[in-house]
Protein backbone atom coordinates (compact mmCIF):
# COMPACT_ATOMS: atom_id res chain seq x y z
CA UNK A 1 0.00 0.00 0.00
CA UNK A 2 0.94 3.65 -0.26
CA UNK A 3 1.78 4.90 3.22
CA UNK A 4 1.22 8.49 4.27
CA UNK A 5 0.83 10.59 7.39
CA UNK A 6 -1.10 13.73 8.13
CA UNK A 7 0.63 17.07 7.88
CA UNK A 8 0.91 19.12 11.08
CA UNK A 9 -2.30 21.03 11.84
CA UNK A 10 -0.58 24.41 11.63
CA UNK A 11 0.72 23.65 8.13
CA UNK A 12 -2.81 22.78 7.00
CA UNK A 13 -4.15 25.92 8.67
CA UNK A 14 -1.63 28.01 6.74
CA UNK A 15 -2.74 26.40 3.47
CA UNK A 16 -6.40 27.21 4.11
CA UNK A 17 -5.78 30.67 5.61
CA UNK A 18 -7.33 32.59 2.69
CA UNK A 19 -10.38 30.34 2.32
CA UNK A 20 -13.67 30.73 4.17
CA UNK A 21 -15.33 27.52 3.06
CA UNK A 22 -13.16 24.43 2.96
CA UNK A 23 -13.96 20.85 1.95
CA UNK A 24 -11.86 17.96 3.26
CA UNK A 25 -11.84 14.95 0.95
CA UNK A 26 -10.66 11.58 2.24
CA UNK A 27 -9.76 8.46 0.32
CA UNK A 28 -11.15 5.05 1.22
CA UNK A 29 -8.22 2.94 0.08
CA UNK A 30 -4.49 2.96 1.07
CA UNK A 31 -4.61 6.01 3.35
CA UNK A 32 -7.62 4.60 5.17
CA UNK A 33 -5.69 1.43 5.93
CA UNK A 34 -2.73 3.43 7.28
CA UNK A 35 -5.07 5.64 9.36
CA UNK A 36 -4.02 8.86 7.63
CA UNK A 37 -6.85 9.94 5.32
CA UNK A 38 -10.00 7.84 5.73
CA UNK A 39 -13.45 8.92 6.94
CA UNK A 40 -12.37 8.89 10.58
CA UNK A 41 -9.28 11.02 10.00
CA UNK A 42 -11.26 13.45 7.85
CA UNK A 43 -13.77 13.78 10.68
CA UNK A 44 -11.05 14.40 13.29
CA UNK A 45 -9.20 16.92 11.13
CA UNK A 46 -12.40 18.79 10.24
CA UNK A 47 -13.31 19.07 13.93
CA UNK A 48 -9.78 20.28 14.79
CA UNK A 49 -9.82 22.88 12.02
CA UNK A 50 -13.29 24.16 12.94
CA UNK A 51 -12.35 24.50 16.62
CA UNK A 52 -8.90 25.89 16.03
CA UNK A 53 -9.93 28.54 13.49
CA UNK A 54 -12.83 29.55 15.74
CA UNK A 55 -10.46 30.00 18.68
CA UNK A 56 -8.25 32.10 16.41
CA UNK A 57 -11.27 34.36 15.78
CA UNK A 58 -11.39 33.32 12.14
CA UNK A 59 -13.86 30.42 12.18
CA UNK A 60 -14.19 28.58 8.88
CA UNK A 61 -16.78 26.28 7.41
CA UNK A 62 -15.05 22.91 7.11
CA UNK A 63 -17.10 20.12 5.55
CA UNK A 64 -16.21 16.48 4.93
CA UNK A 65 -16.50 13.94 2.17
CA UNK A 66 -14.70 10.69 1.42
CA UNK A 67 -14.49 8.91 -1.93
CA UNK A 68 -13.56 5.27 -2.36
CA UNK A 69 -10.41 5.95 -4.39
CA UNK A 70 -9.06 9.40 -5.29
CA UNK A 71 -6.63 8.09 -7.89
CA UNK A 72 -9.35 7.04 -10.35
CA UNK A 73 -11.56 9.59 -12.07
CA UNK A 74 -14.75 7.52 -11.86
CA UNK A 75 -14.70 7.46 -8.09
CA UNK A 76 -14.37 11.24 -7.86
CA UNK A 77 -17.48 12.02 -9.95
CA UNK A 78 -19.76 12.49 -6.87
CA UNK A 79 -17.53 15.43 -5.88
CA UNK A 80 -18.36 17.43 -8.98
CA UNK A 81 -21.66 18.86 -7.73
CA UNK A 82 -20.19 19.86 -4.35
CA UNK A 83 -17.15 21.83 -5.42
CA UNK A 84 -18.91 25.13 -6.21
CA UNK A 85 -19.74 25.49 -2.52
CA UNK A 86 -16.10 25.75 -1.46
CA UNK A 87 -13.15 28.10 -1.86
CA UNK A 88 -10.56 25.37 -1.42
CA UNK A 89 -10.36 21.59 -1.05
CA UNK A 90 -7.90 19.74 1.17
CA UNK A 91 -7.25 16.23 -0.11
CA UNK A 92 -6.42 13.56 2.43
CA UNK A 93 -5.42 11.19 -0.35
CA UNK A 94 -1.84 10.43 -1.31
CA UNK A 95 0.04 12.67 -3.74
CA UNK A 96 -1.52 10.76 -6.63
CA UNK A 97 -4.99 11.53 -5.28
CA UNK A 98 -4.24 15.26 -4.93
CA UNK A 99 -2.96 15.44 -8.52
CA UNK A 100 -5.86 13.40 -9.88
CA UNK A 101 -8.32 15.85 -8.35
CA UNK A 102 -6.47 18.93 -9.62
CA UNK A 103 -6.36 17.42 -13.10
CA UNK A 104 -9.98 16.30 -13.07
CA UNK A 105 -11.48 19.51 -11.67
CA UNK A 106 -9.15 22.32 -12.82
CA UNK A 107 -11.65 25.02 -11.81
CA UNK A 108 -10.87 24.26 -8.15
CA UNK A 109 -7.64 24.05 -6.17
CA UNK A 110 -6.86 20.94 -4.15
CA UNK A 111 -4.05 21.08 -1.58
CA UNK A 112 -2.38 18.18 0.25
CA UNK A 113 -3.36 17.32 3.81
CA UNK A 114 -0.96 14.39 3.91
CA UNK A 115 2.72 13.75 3.38
CA UNK A 116 3.01 10.70 1.15
CA UNK A 117 5.90 8.63 2.41
CA UNK A 118 6.46 5.28 0.68
CA UNK A 119 5.12 1.91 -0.49
CA UNK A 120 5.15 -0.55 2.33
CA UNK A 121 3.24 -2.61 4.84
CA UNK A 122 2.24 -2.59 8.51
CA UNK A 123 4.70 -4.77 10.44
CA UNK A 124 3.01 -4.33 13.81
CA UNK A 125 0.23 -2.22 15.27
CA UNK A 126 1.11 1.40 14.50
CA UNK A 127 4.27 0.65 12.51
CA UNK A 128 4.64 0.80 8.71
CA UNK A 129 7.83 -0.02 6.85
CA UNK A 130 9.02 0.63 3.31
CA UNK A 131 9.37 -2.37 1.04
CA UNK A 132 9.43 -1.23 -2.60
CA UNK A 133 10.84 1.86 -4.31
CA UNK A 134 9.18 1.12 -7.68
CA UNK A 135 12.51 0.85 -9.49
CA UNK A 136 10.80 -0.53 -12.59
CA UNK A 137 12.99 -3.63 -12.90
CA UNK A 138 12.37 -6.01 -10.02
CA UNK A 139 15.25 -8.20 -8.84
CA UNK A 140 13.60 -9.90 -5.88
CA UNK A 141 14.18 -13.29 -7.54
CA UNK A 142 17.92 -12.70 -7.12
CA UNK A 143 17.84 -11.39 -3.56
CA UNK A 144 15.72 -13.90 -1.67
CA UNK A 145 12.63 -11.72 -1.93
CA UNK A 146 14.19 -8.85 0.03
CA UNK A 147 14.65 -5.54 -1.78
CA UNK A 148 18.07 -3.88 -1.56
CA UNK A 149 16.77 -0.83 -3.41
CA UNK A 150 14.15 0.03 -0.82
CA UNK A 151 15.79 -1.48 2.25
CA UNK A 152 19.53 -0.88 1.93
CA UNK A 153 20.41 2.74 2.72
CA UNK A 154 23.01 2.71 -0.07
CA UNK A 155 20.98 0.65 -2.54
CA UNK A 156 23.87 -1.78 -2.88
CA UNK A 157 23.42 -4.64 -5.32
CA UNK A 158 26.38 -6.90 -4.53
CA UNK A 159 26.50 -7.40 -0.80
CA UNK A 160 26.85 -5.27 2.31
CA UNK A 161 29.03 -2.25 2.93
CA UNK A 162 31.54 -2.05 5.76
CA UNK A 163 28.95 -0.41 7.99
CA UNK A 164 27.02 -3.64 8.48
CA UNK A 165 27.64 -4.71 12.08
CA UNK A 166 25.96 -7.65 13.79
CA UNK A 167 23.09 -7.55 11.32
CA UNK A 168 22.41 -3.85 11.86
CA UNK A 169 22.76 -1.00 9.33
CA UNK A 170 25.14 1.79 10.21
CA UNK A 171 22.46 4.45 9.71
CA UNK A 172 20.35 3.48 12.74
CA UNK A 173 20.57 0.90 15.51
CA UNK A 174 17.00 -0.29 14.88
CA UNK A 175 17.42 -0.74 11.11
CA UNK A 176 18.40 -4.24 10.06
CA UNK A 177 21.08 -4.47 7.37
CA UNK A 178 19.17 -5.44 4.23
CA UNK A 179 22.10 -7.49 3.01
CA UNK A 180 22.24 -9.47 6.25
CA UNK A 181 18.54 -10.26 5.72
CA UNK A 182 19.19 -11.14 2.08
CA UNK A 183 22.04 -13.46 3.01
CA UNK A 184 20.04 -15.23 5.71
CA UNK A 185 17.02 -15.65 3.46
CA UNK A 186 19.10 -16.90 0.55
CA UNK A 187 20.81 -19.33 2.93
CA UNK A 188 17.42 -20.63 4.13
CA UNK A 189 16.34 -21.07 0.51
CA UNK A 190 19.59 -22.81 -0.44
CA UNK A 191 20.23 -20.02 -2.96
CA UNK A 192 23.52 -18.53 -1.78
CA UNK A 193 24.92 -19.33 -5.24
CA UNK A 194 22.58 -16.70 -6.73
CA UNK A 195 24.21 -14.04 -4.56
CA UNK A 196 27.57 -14.96 -6.03
CA UNK A 197 26.46 -13.79 -9.49
CA UNK A 198 27.81 -10.27 -9.90
CA UNK A 199 25.00 -7.79 -10.51
CA UNK A 200 25.88 -5.17 -13.11
CA UNK A 201 25.32 -1.48 -12.40
CA UNK A 202 21.58 -0.92 -12.36
CA UNK A 203 19.93 0.82 -15.27
CA UNK A 204 18.12 3.54 -13.35
CA UNK A 205 16.22 4.75 -16.41
CA UNK A 206 13.34 2.47 -15.39
CA UNK A 207 13.30 4.23 -12.02
CA UNK A 208 12.82 7.93 -11.23
CA UNK A 209 16.06 8.85 -12.99
CA UNK A 210 14.34 8.33 -16.33
CA UNK A 211 11.75 11.04 -15.60
CA UNK A 212 7.99 10.52 -15.16
CA UNK A 213 7.07 6.99 -16.11
CA UNK A 214 4.16 5.61 -18.06
CA UNK A 215 2.88 2.13 -18.88
CA UNK A 216 0.99 1.73 -22.14
CA UNK A 217 -0.87 -1.52 -22.83
CA UNK A 218 -1.69 -1.51 -26.54
CA UNK A 219 -3.86 -4.64 -26.19
CA UNK A 220 -6.14 -2.85 -23.70
CA UNK A 221 -6.18 0.35 -25.76
CA UNK A 222 -7.27 -1.70 -28.78
CA UNK A 223 -10.18 -3.23 -26.84
CA UNK A 224 -11.23 0.25 -25.65
CA UNK A 225 -11.16 1.60 -29.23
CA UNK A 226 -13.20 -1.37 -30.49
CA UNK A 227 -15.84 -0.77 -27.85
CA UNK A 228 -16.24 2.90 -28.85
S1 LIG B 1 13.65 -4.44 -6.87
FE1 LIG B 1 12.58 -2.61 -7.57
S2 LIG B 1 10.47 -3.29 -8.07
FE2 LIG B 1 11.47 -4.94 -6.87
S3 LIG B 1 10.81 -4.52 -4.74
FE3 LIG B 1 12.79 -3.48 -5.05
S4 LIG B 1 12.29 -1.40 -5.72
FE4 LIG B 1 10.44 -2.64 -5.91
S1 LIG C 1 24.82 -1.59 6.53
FE1 LIG C 1 23.67 -2.95 5.16
S2 LIG C 1 21.68 -1.88 4.80
FE2 LIG C 1 23.10 -0.39 5.71
S3 LIG C 1 23.96 0.66 3.95
FE3 LIG C 1 25.42 -1.02 4.47
S4 LIG C 1 24.76 -2.77 3.24
FE4 LIG C 1 23.08 -1.26 3.18
Note down, in words, how this protein is organized.
The structure is a single chain. The chain is α/β, with parallel strands linked by helices. It has helices at residues 9-15, 30-33, 39-55, 73-76, 95-104, 148-151, 178-189, 192-195, 218-227; strands spanning 2-6, 21-27, 61-67, 88-92, 110-112, 114-124, 127-132. A 4-stranded parallel beta sheet has the order 3-2-4-5, sandwiched between helices. A 3-stranded antiparallel beta sheet has the order 1-6-7. The relative contact order is 0.12. The mean pLDDT is 96. Bound molecules: iron/sulfur cluster (2 copies). One iron/sulfur cluster binds at residues 152-154, 156, 160-161, 163-164, 169-171, 177-179. One iron/sulfur cluster (SF4) binds next to α6.
Chain-wise SSE layout:
Blueprint: E1 2-6, H1 9-15, E2 21-27, H2 30-33, H3 39-55, E3 61-67, H4 73-76, E4 88-92, H5 95-104, E5 110-112, E6 114-124, E7 127-132, H6 148-151, H7 178-189, H8 192-195, H9 218-227
Parallel strand pairs: 2-3, 2-4, 4-5
Antiparallel strand pairs: 1-6, 6-7
Bound molecules: iron/sulfur cluster (SF4) (2 copies).
One iron/sulfur cluster binds next to helix 7.
Amino acid sequence: MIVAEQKPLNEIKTMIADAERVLLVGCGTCVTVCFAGGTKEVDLLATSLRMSTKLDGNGKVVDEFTVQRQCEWEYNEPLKEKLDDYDLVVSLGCGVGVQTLNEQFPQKQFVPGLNTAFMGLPTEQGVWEERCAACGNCILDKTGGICPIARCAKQLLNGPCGGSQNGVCEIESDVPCAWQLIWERANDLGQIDRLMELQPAKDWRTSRDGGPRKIVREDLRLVAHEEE
